[in-house]
Amino acid sequence: MSLARTRRYSREINYWPGFVDALSTLLLTITFLLSIFAVAQVVLSQEVNGRDTVLTRLNRQIAELTELLSLEKTKGAKSDAEIGALKATLDQAKSDQSRLQQQMDLGGGAANAAERRAGQLQSALEAQTADTNRALSQIDSLNQQIAALRRQLAAIESALQASESREQDAQTRIADLGSRLNVALAQKVQELARYRSDFFGRLRDILGNRPDIRIVGDRFVFQSEVFFDPGQADLKPEGMPELDKVATAMREIISSIPPDIPWVLRVDGHTDKRPLSGTGKFATNWDLSAARAIAVVRYLQSQGLPPEHLLAAGFGEFQPLDLGDTEDAFKRNRRIELKLTDR
């Protein structure tokens, strides 16, 4: 009977392997949790300027940590249940020891074995209790770190809200400044349009009605033949008096233009679409048109017009007035245009 009770006792207390597995799983999970938390801290420091993306990622990590913590608490509760079972087994072993003590005359060796087994169980229980306490301490520390992380998130959200408020204020001020600038620019454009109208009227009076000088939109258009020989960029003497009239008209209105209006008299050179031979002074129509515009600008400067208000541009054959292939079309496209405009 004593032998049967000992075997039953051996079967009842065989919890040690399961306990060791549970403890190992708990420690590995806690280590994994701490590693995840460390990674979360690094990601937070690297991504703090990512605003909404960072907040979303951190909130997701907190949810994962919270879920893992809940799982660990569940496992901790399971470990507590196993500790309770071990305690019950220990109590049963002590009871068996007491009964065996009464039967010393029949089997002293079995009582000693039970006592040793009870001592082993007591040691295992103490070790399990110590490990459980350490795990609970680590869980508490992890809870504190999660709380600190939540506080950091709240501080980041507050800083982002303040930054967004400042940015909105800045955008409002920029919009206001832009509106005021547009109003000021519109006023300057209107003033320049008035002086342009005066210039056109005065120049029209001076030049009179000539077939080789036309008004196209906001520009005076001179046929190139008025100033230049074919393929050349040197002003002809007979064309200079016409430019003198332009300089006279400009001098009459320059003194009345306020200095804060950024105006220029733009001289545009144009040619027809027939290519040059390439053997002369100018390789392309672009070169020829630019050289003619520069020649006009230099002459106007020599007549007293301020160079900072003169602009030369060459368009070659790329801005035609007439798309035809006749001599009249070619003649219309070979031209010098004058335009009073803003810089």
Indicate the overall shape: rod-shaped
- In helices, the fraction of residues equals 55-70%
Distance between the termini: 117 Å
**Unreliable stretches covering 5 or more consecutive residues:** none
| Order of helix and strand elements from N to C terminus | HHHHEEHEHEHE
Structural class: alpha+beta
Main sheet summary = 5 strands, mixed
CA-atom Rg in angstroms: 49 Å
Which descriptors would you attach to this protein?
343 residues, alpha+beta, 60s Ribosomal Protein L30, Chain: A, 2 domains, 5-stranded mixed β-sheet, 7 helices, 69% helix, rod-shaped
What would you note in describing this structure?
The structure is a single chain. Strand 1 (213-216) and strand 2 (219-223) form a beta hairpin. The chain has helices at residues 2-12, 16-47, 52-102, 104-207, 240-254, 285-302, 327-333; strands at residues 213-216, 219-223, 263-270, 310-314, 335-342. It has 343 residues and is α+β, with helices and mostly antiparallel strands. 16% of the residues are buried. Strands 1-2-5-3-4 form a 5-stranded mixed β-sheet. The mean pLDDT is 79. Helix 2 (16-47) runs parallel beside helix 4 and helix 3 packs antiparallel against helix 4 (104-207). The chain has 2 domains: 2-174, no CATH class; 209-342, OmpA-like domain (60s Ribosomal Protein L30, Chain: A, 2-Layer Sandwich).
